[in-house]
Amino acid sequence: MDDTNLSDLNHHTKLTSSEMATLWTTMLADSSMIAFLTHFAEHKEDEDVNLFVRKALDTAIDHRDSVAAILENEGITRPIGFPLDKHVNLKAPRLFTDVFYCHYILQACKAALLNHNNSFTASSRKDVVTLFQRFYSDTSTLVIEMTNMMQGKGIYIRPPYIPYQEKSDGPIKKNSFLGGWFGAKRPLLANELGQLFDNSYSNQMGRVLLNGFIQVIKDKEIQEYFIRGRKLATKFVHRVQQMLEDELAPHGMIWDSQVTTSTESPFSDQLMLYLVGSLNSVGLGKLGLSLAQTLRRDVASFYMSSFTLTTAYSEDGLNLLIDRQWMEEPPQCPDRKEIASQSKL
């Protein structure tokens, strides 16, 4: 080992590309959640719900500030995010009911859990590992408390129940186990039923969010984009319902009545477009996981086609952000070709 390498061992350990990326995206996500929760906390109705919202808001602020401190110490440009004075209209009436906010926040916390877990496993620097370990602990506590509160109020939506299997039928003997396109179809596996329910639930929630945003969005092109997204979500939900009805399996409720009649926007167009984009990302992750765990071909084919449609829709949303110069540039590798071309001038 040469002297340079030995000397490097005594220097401050820099962030890896994975650590830099996860810290940056975490701070941006927390900034959007702070904006969303701040308006809700200002227009509370149920005190039990408000207590949890306040706790979730304080947690998001703490997480944002903790990440900001590391990025600042490293000399890395932090995302601007969504300052409240530019992206939240606290005087605007509430756009959604308490019930919807509860479901949205719970799902946002569950998505954050997955991100924190992935960030934890992708990190190696001690302070970053410890940070995401704490974030995971904080968020899991929120999920548990929110779930308990919603169950107590009778608004928690559980996945379908199926009878317990009292004995095993032994090894699978028929190739038709993987079938589903033609002829008789085997019953859905418990995991397949659960995945269909979870994806349908997410799309129902997305449809409600889009219903509200369509009422108040100022940009007509973005409004058309949201209308298109609502159609995609509705089509997905109806297809899953048909599948479950064919199986004589129970399916979750549809809740389209969780949007108020307000036409005054509590959020900026930029924030609303970002939140829809975040839901797209979560949805794509769920579709990919469901596809990997699904063994019946017709269900897997449905996930593949849905993934393709959602990917195209998500890309169009990113283009809308870029066209309006609303998309912040995340950390990236240096453009070596550009650097080389400048050195020749």
Order of helices and strands: HHHHHHHHHHH
Instruction: Tell me the strand percentage band.
Output: under 5%
Radius of gyration: 23 Å
Biggest β-sheet, characterized?
A: none
Give the termini separation. Answer: 37 Å
Rounded mean pLDDT is 90
Structural class: mainly alpha
Counting DSSP H or I runs of 4 or more residues, the number of helices is: 11
* Portion of residues within helices: 55-70%
Low-confidence stretches: none
Which features characterize this protein?
0% strand; mainly alpha; 345 residues; globular
How does this structure look, described?
This protein starts with a helix and ends with a helix. The longest helix has 28 residues, at 47-74. 67% of the residues lie in helices and 0% in strands. It has 345 residues and is mainly α. The mean pLDDT is 90. The protein has helices at residues 3-8, 17-42, 47-74, 84-87, 98-122, 126-153, 190-216, 220-246, 269-293, 297-323, 336-343. The chain contains 11 helices and no strands.
